[in-house]
Every structure is written in C-alpha cells, then in structure tokens.
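Blinded run. Sample ID left blank on purpose so nobody reads anything into the name before looking at the predicted structure. Input follows.
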Amino acid sequence: MEILEAYDLTGSYRAAAELAGCDHHTVARYVALRATGGSPVEREHRARPIDEYLPKIEELVVRSNGRVRADVVHKRITAMGFTGGERTTRRTVAQVKARLRAGQRRVFRPWIPEPGLWLQWDWGHGPKIGGRQTQLWCAWLAWSRFRVVIPVMDKTLPTVVSCLDTTLRRIGGIPTYALTDNEKTVSVDHIAQIAVRNPDIVEVGRHYGLTIRTCMPADPQTKGGSEATVRIAKADLVPTEANLLGEYRTFGELETACREFSDAVNDRPHRETRRRPVEALAEERTRLHPLTKTPFTIAFGTTRRVNWDATVSVEGVRYSVPHQLIDTRVWVRFQGDELIITATGDDGPTEVARHARSTPGNPSIKDEHYPPRTDHHGERAPRATSSEEAAFLALGDGAAAWLTEAAAAGTRRIRPKMAEAVTLAKLHPAAEVDRALGIAAIAGRFADNDLIRILTHNLGRDTSEPSRAGEDHSLQPGTSAWSNFGLPTQTTIPDDESETH
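Blinded prediction complete.
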C-alpha cells in the first residue's frame, strides 16, 4: 500500500521506488496488478518441481476420501522420480485436502423447531451396578428443551415401549413426530438408503398416534438435542474421575439420581432460549395431543395375576414380585435366561422384578419383595396379653429373650418368676434387672433364685460379656486323700507298755 500511495503521489515508477525503498520494476508490477483488478497481496504462483506430480497427489487424496497420510504420498511420488523434500509434499497434500473438504462440505440450515412437533431419544451407557452394565434412555422435547432420563437394564423393544410411554406421561402429551437412531428395534433394514421400519414399532406409533422417524446413518447432526442430553447425563450420572461420583449400590439409587438430574436440568434456564424448560413445557403442552389412557402392553408379554403370597406362576415356577402388587395383573416375558415382570401405574409401565429362569419345584423368591419381619428365624416375638405380661416385657429386650428361652426349655413356674422380676425392678434399676434377665437367657439359668443371684453378682459391674468358668480352675475335689488308701497303718506303742510286754 505504501508503494501504491507513493506512485499516486509522484506519478513516476522511479520516484515512487525511491520513496518506498524498492525497485522501480516492483512498483510497475503492483500498479499493473491494481489496474487489472487483482489483489496486491496475492502472491504470484511460481512453477515448482512438485507441480508435475500434482495430478497423482490429487488422485491419491480423492481415492482415500482425504484420509491418506502425507508420508505415504511422499513415498509414492519419490518412487516416481520426485526429488524434493517431505516438507514440500506435506504442504501440497494439505492444500489438496483443503480443496477436497471445501468441495464436499455440507451446508446446514438452522433448524427452528415448532412447539408440539418433535421428540427425540437416544441411548447412552450408564454406570455398572453389581458388575452389570446399565443403559440410559435420554429423551428431549425439541421446542421446550425438556429432558427425561430413565435408567434401564437393556435396549429391547419392550424396554423401548416402556420408556417411550413413561416419557410421554412425564411431558403430559404426545407430539407429532419422534426421531431416533436406526437400531434394530426401530429399523430392520436399509434399501437404497431408505430405512425399513420395524413392524412392531409401527404398531406402537399407531397406538399413541405418533409418527416415528429415524435420522440419516452416521449423521448425528440430525438429532443433536438428544446427543447433547446423552453427553450431559453421562457427565453427571456415570462415576468418573472428573465428577468423583461414588458407585451405585442398587438400581433404585440410580433411578433416584436420574430423576433428580432431570428435575435439576429442567428447572434451570436453557443457554439458548433463556427460559426454564418446565415453563416452556407448560406452554408446549397446549400443542401436544392427548395421552392414551392405556399403555401399549402387547410387547410386555403375557398377563399374570399376582397371588396372595406376592408371587406369579410362569411355566409351573413361582416368582416373587413386590408385595404392593398383590391381587393385580402384571406382564411377564422371558428374555434369554431371565424373566422380566412389568407392571403399569400412573407413571406408565415399569419393570418391577427380574429373575433368573428357574425350574419347577425351585421357586425364585427375593427378600426385598416382602416387608421386613419383626421376628427372628420365623419365631414369634412375645406380645403381652395381660397387664402382668406387659409389665414384665416393659423391662426390655432381656426380658423378652428370657421368656423366649425359658419357654423353649420347658421351665416350670414361669409366671411367678416373671412377677419376681417385676418386683426386683422396683427395688433395683430396671436396666440392671433387664440385663440380668438377658444373661440368664444366654446362660440358660431359669431355676428359682437364679435371677436374684445374677442380679446381686452383677450390680455395679461391667457385664457386657457373661462370666464363664476358665480352664485354669475346676470345682472337682482333689484326690490327695486317696493317696494312702490300702497301705498298712503304723501303731505307736507307749514306752511303759513296751516294757511290760
């Protein structure tokens, strides 16, 4: 620009060259370039030795779709006679790849979603629980940015239907379209790049009045919202070194964490809309279709009625279910070597139990399906039926243990001994009497006056452990008296008698 400014000032090549400090031929070249409308900063291409091999480089780059390495290209053209350096080859290969990418670059038109139209879902790997991999169903309502994350154990069609129904009930309506990947549960084949839809998922869409679409293969840009939901959910829910989360002990803990995560992300303003998704969802619900009253249950298997003992019978084998489902209907299906039991509620279908396949005569019963028992090993805990019994059992756990053990041992006169314990509790601290009863139950001492002896012995002493006889002392009498048994006795004769004899 200084050269052109000097030429405009002087109108002479040589005078402008003296002012700009360059050769007058340089001034003439820039003036001629400006006159033709060219860019003064554009460098003139000079012939290079590698130009002879440029067609071959372009062929290699196009054949590899821009993935060939520059060192591989350099070896190929060196064998053809190229004598230049590898740096020149790398520079040329980079230029050819840039031109190829520019010619193949996809141009995206910004997608502006409409309310009530699009729901997207995708899958992500969840944390391992008990050594088993879980999956995260991540759904995203496009306009309101409302997210739903549900943990599951597999990605089968019944699980997809269950998660879809639960998602629709959480958002409170049905959109027009649902977009997802081309998995076998949705697309069974591709013909001429046209996805052939799974007939079962088509029936699901008809049940809900929902059109299920799939994205283009290997093209995550068509459903970026659900991809972002998967990324955020995995970052906040899967234990890693970045978030320092602890391991989940049970599947219920993971379900609670996913529900809390969904509530948290839906209650904070979205970066793009500057609105909370729960507020936008309330507005979008007016554009959603009404929910169907009954979920799509055909994919969940066959129905079974839960018996009074919280079990269902499948192929002659009893399997337990949560006791809250007694006298209701559930759906059962086998998946490999597992039996999956599904129930429906206000929030949609939910997997309530999962058992390993068993055989007739070997029922599969899980303790967590039943309420906790107050007794121990099936024994009935003492319950007072009179004021005297209530006064005795009010002493504490030791009294209950004494009564249980004394009854099992067939002890006589139990009621008078109970009354004696209540009387002792009025003369001594009740805690001490209860402790003495507990010790008597452990030691099996139920005779008369055993309780008062133990109480007297233990008053003011630490009796966390019962007293037991040691091996260094025995109550067996000694045998020293028998040492001389059977030996002749020696008689002492007085001196006067010996002299007489």
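Unblinding after everyone has recorded impressions. Residues 387-458 form one domain.
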